[in-house]
């Protein structure tokens, strides 16, 4: 495949390495030095088979539109834009384009998403446990809560009675006990700590014990491999997909 990378930062550079290891070709890379090169005409000129988009929440929507205009499938890893999901799905389908997005492309986190939903369903029988989500990321992260934490929270809200929305608190580790969190709200606590690639924990706490599930990324390789696998997966497809369509964990 000929791959264009919209966003050539921490993720873009690892994706390039994995793509080359898998015998793909990287035909265009975009960062702030050459933003104007990211046009539909250029994507067609370099004959890109796919765009992998890991840029930032302010740039991602325009970049997806460029991919649609060029008719090139786009894999979106950038987070912080999910308010526009329904709108993008509609445009993608109306224009007969292809897009796959994931808040987290790692296999481990996608297994975690599945376990999280099963656990939340089970916990309906034990309402005396209070649930909370915590995410920890490096200090350069622009969005909070993380996209992954939002997906985890949605998994809980859709499965657990009594929680109907999430509330985010970005802390420096201070006690969140003083925060007003309503009974129907699921607290997502966000912490920013130097060099942490991404750690997510779901905690159920009662007076007598606690249950925790936790995913710790040791580096960014799992995210990057998942994005390249997604680019390979969409090659014979049209339409709007999420990682759930690619990773199936039915027992
Ligand atoms: N879904 C997943 O599995 C994962 C998602 N992410 C998400 O991916 C995104 C990128 O993360 P990361 O690589 O760590 O961030 P970085 O800040 O390291 O990289 C962002 C890149 O985007 C470039 N950029 C800036 N403006 C534009 C633009 N208008 N168009 C295209 N590129 C642009 C930056 O250029 P320059 O540096 O020159 O300014 C930089 O090369 C974030 O939203 C993050 O949350 C991250 C990891 C996993
Ligand atoms: O910005 C990051 O680094 C990450 N972003 C994604 C998110 O917001 O969930 C995925 C991963 O946790 C790393």
UniProtKB/TrEMBL annotation:
Record key words, sorted: Amino-acid biosynthesis, Cytoplasm, Diaminopimelate biosynthesis, Lysine biosynthesis, NAD, NADP, Oxidoreductase
Active-site residues, as the UniProt record annotates them: 137, 141
Keyword Amino-acid biosynthesis: yes
Listed CDD domains: DHDPR_N
Residue sites binding NAD(+) per the record: 77-79, 102-105
InterPro entries: DapB_C, DapB_N, DHDPR_bac, NAD(P)-bd_dom_sf
Domain Dihydrodipicolinate reductase C-terminal positions: 108-246
UniProt-listed GO biological process terms: diaminopimelate biosynthetic process; lysine biosynthetic process via diaminopimelate
Domain Dihydrodipicolinate reductase N-terminal residues, every copy: 1-105
Pathway linked to the protein: Amino-acid biosynthesis; L-lysine biosynthesis via DAP pathway; (S)-tetrahydrodipicolinate from L-aspartate: step 4/4
Broad class of enzyme this protein falls into: oxidoreductase
Sites where the protein binds (S)-2,3,4,5-tetrahydrodipicolinate: 138, 147-148
Gene Ontology MF, one: NADP binding
Catalytic activity line of the entry: (S)-2,3,4,5-tetrahydrodipicolinate + NADP(+) + H2O = (2S,4S)-4-hydroxy-2,3,4,5-tetrahydrodipicolinate + NADPH + H(+); (S)-2,3,4,5-tetrahydrodipicolinate + NAD(+) + H2O = (2S,4S)-4-hydroxy-2,3,4,5-tetrahydrodipicolinate + NADH + H(+)
Coiled coil regions, renumbered to chain: none
Compartments where found: Cytoplasm
EC number, as in UniProt: 1.17.1.8
GO cellular component, one term: cytosol
Primary location class: cytoplasm
Subunit note: Homotetramer.
Role, per record: Catalyzes the conversion of 4-hydroxy-tetrahydrodipicolinate (HTPA) to tetrahydrodipicolinate.
Entries under PANTHER family matching the protein: 4-HYDROXY-TETRAHYDRODIPICOLINATE REDUCTASE 1, CHLOROPLASTIC-RELATED (PTHR20836:SF0), DIHYDRODIPICOLINATE REDUCTASE (PTHR20836)
Family from the record: Belongs to the DapB family.
Name recorded for this polypeptide: 4-hydroxy-tetrahydrodipicolinate reductase
């Amino acid at each position: 495949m000929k791959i264009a990378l919209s966003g050539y930062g921490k993720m873009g550079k690892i994706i390039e390495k994995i793509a080359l290891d898998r015998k793909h070709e990287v035909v265009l890379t975009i960062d702030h030095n050459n933003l104007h090169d990211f046009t539909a005409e250029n994507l067609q000129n370099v004959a890109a088979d796919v765009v992998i988009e890991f840029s930032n929440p302010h740039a991602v929507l325009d970049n997806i539109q460029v991919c649609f205009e060029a008719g090139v499938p786009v894999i979106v890893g950038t987070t912080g834009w999910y308010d526009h999901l329904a709108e993008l799905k509609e445009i993608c389908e109306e224009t007969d384009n292809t897009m796959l997005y994931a808040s987290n492309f790692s296999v481990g986190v996608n297994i975690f998403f599945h376990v999280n939903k099963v656990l939340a369903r089970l916990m309906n029988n034990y309402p005396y446990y209070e649930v909370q989500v915590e995410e920890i990321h490096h200090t350069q992260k622009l969005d909070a809560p993380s996209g992954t934490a939002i997906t985890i929270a949605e998994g809980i809200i859709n499965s657990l009675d009594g929680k109907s929305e999430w509330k985010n608190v970005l802390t420096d580790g201070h006690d969140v006990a003083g925060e007003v969190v309503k009974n129907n709200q699921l607290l997502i606590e966000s912490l920013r700590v130097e060099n942490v690639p991404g750690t997510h924990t779901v905690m159920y706490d009662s007076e007598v014990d606690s249950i925790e599930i936790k995913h710790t990324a040791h580096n960014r390789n799992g995210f990057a491999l998942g994005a390249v696998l997604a680019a390979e997966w969409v090659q014979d497809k049209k339409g709007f997909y999420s990682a759930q369509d690619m990773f199936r964990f039915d027992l």
